[in-house]
């Protein structure tokens, strides 16, 4: 028995477009080229067309992969996606391998004309502080190899159940050595788990000077459901299971959860809260979310709120809400930032 295999070399390159707003208006068919990068022994670059590669696709962001090496030919599969500090989009890939030929102007470039509609991009969370991060993945396909096949047995390992085991530990309360009292509700937990996940808990709960018997700590200025969600994240690394909350409750909890994440220096949870709120802005709560972002240093969330308020169909409705009047009294400095945001984002 013989086997045909295709050796592969994989690599990725990240191309960041800073100040996305200012890249618009470059013109249809005009592009910005990335620095040249090397994958699989070949030189490549990315072309970014902010106004589309041609008139037919001018409502899209277009991307191209260009072979920069000379006097060569290579077969490759490639894909693009967007990313931010919290998550990534799905890969947009070519359907089959592409043959790049440096001797032909047309064949040394492969285009993805309809990468993403510009309107969809500007409504998404992938524009962080007006920066656009494009990730390119390339798989270089080498010459086929034919060889004798060896039959081997392989044991399939089950997926990790670490988060489930820690969730059971939290629910069972076995071995708990600290109790938190939050507005009359008690939560039992394990000092060593909390300390491993939060430097604030590490300082509060561990160290040679801390008593070894069970502790009882009263937590001020926090809602019980937010503290419960905080513990669930600490033990399972899972952000608010969707089946446990409806949309309105989830948004309210995430407001409180972001404050808790900032209070206990759990940065990944704070980013997850920020990303959720960016995607769930509405007229009634956007000003409260803006104030929250300002208080806790969430710049991406703050930009998203200002962009939302600056929308011509949203501004008047936002100003008519009770929340806007409350923010105007409590945080007058934010009015200046809202005005600046309107001036900035309405130019887009």
From TrEMBL:
Domain MATH: 10-138
GO biological process: protein ubiquitination
CDD domains registered for this protein in UniProt: MATH
Domain BTB: 176-243
Matches recorded under InterPro entries: BACK_BPM_SPOP, BPM1-6, BTB/POZ_dom, MATH/TRAF_dom, SKP1/BTB/POZ_sf, TRAF-like
PROSITE patterns for the chain: BTB, MATH
SMART domains linked: BTB
Pathway of action: Protein modification; protein ubiquitination
Source superkingdom: Eukaryota
Family note: Belongs to the Tdpoz family.
Protein name: Speckle-type POZ protein
Native species: Digitaria exilis
């Amino acid at each position: 028995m013989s086997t045909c295999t295709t050796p592969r070399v994989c690599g990725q390159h990240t191309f960041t477009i800073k100040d996305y707003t200012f890249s618009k208006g470059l013109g249809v068919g005009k592009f910005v080229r990335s620095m040249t990068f090397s994958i699989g022994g070949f030189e490549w670059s990315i072309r970014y067309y902010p106004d589309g590669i041609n008139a037919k696709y001018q409502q899209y962001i277009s991307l191209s992969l260009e072979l920069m090496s000379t006097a060569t030919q290579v077969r490759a599969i490639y894909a693009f996606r967007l990313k931010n500090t919290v998550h990534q989009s799905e890969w947009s890939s070519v359907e089959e391998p592409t043959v790049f030929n440096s001797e032909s102007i047309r064949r040394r470039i492969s285009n993805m004309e309809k990468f993403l509609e510009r309107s969809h991009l500007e409504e998404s969370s992938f524009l962080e502080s007006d920066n656009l991060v494009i990730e390119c993945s390339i798989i270089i396909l080498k010459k086929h190899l034919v060889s004798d096949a060896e039959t081997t047995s392989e044991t399939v390992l089950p997926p990790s159940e670490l988060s489930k085991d820690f969730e059971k530990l939290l629910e069972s309360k076995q071995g708990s050595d600290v109790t938190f009292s939050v507005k009359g509700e008690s939560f039992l937990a394990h000092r060593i788990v909390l300390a491993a996940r939060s430097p604030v808990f590490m300082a509060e709960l561990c160290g040679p000077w801390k008593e070894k018997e069970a502790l009882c700590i009263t937590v001020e200025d926090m809602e019980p459901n937010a503290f419960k969600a905080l513990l669930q994240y600490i033990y399972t690394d899972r952000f608010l299971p969707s089946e446990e909350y409806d949309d309105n409750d989830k948004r309210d909890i995430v407001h409180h959860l972001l404050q808790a994440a900032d209070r206990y220096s759990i940065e990944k949870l704070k980013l997850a809260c920020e990303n959720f709120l960016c995607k769930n802005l509405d007229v009634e709560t956007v000003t409260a979310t803006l104030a929250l972002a300002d208080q806790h240093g969430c710049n991406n969330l703050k930009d998203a709120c200002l962009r939302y308020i600056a929308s011509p169909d949203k501004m008047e409705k936002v100003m008519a809400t009770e929340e806007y009047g409350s923010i105007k009294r409590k945080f007058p400095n934010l009015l200046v930032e809202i005005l600046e945001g309107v001036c900035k984002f309405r130019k887009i």
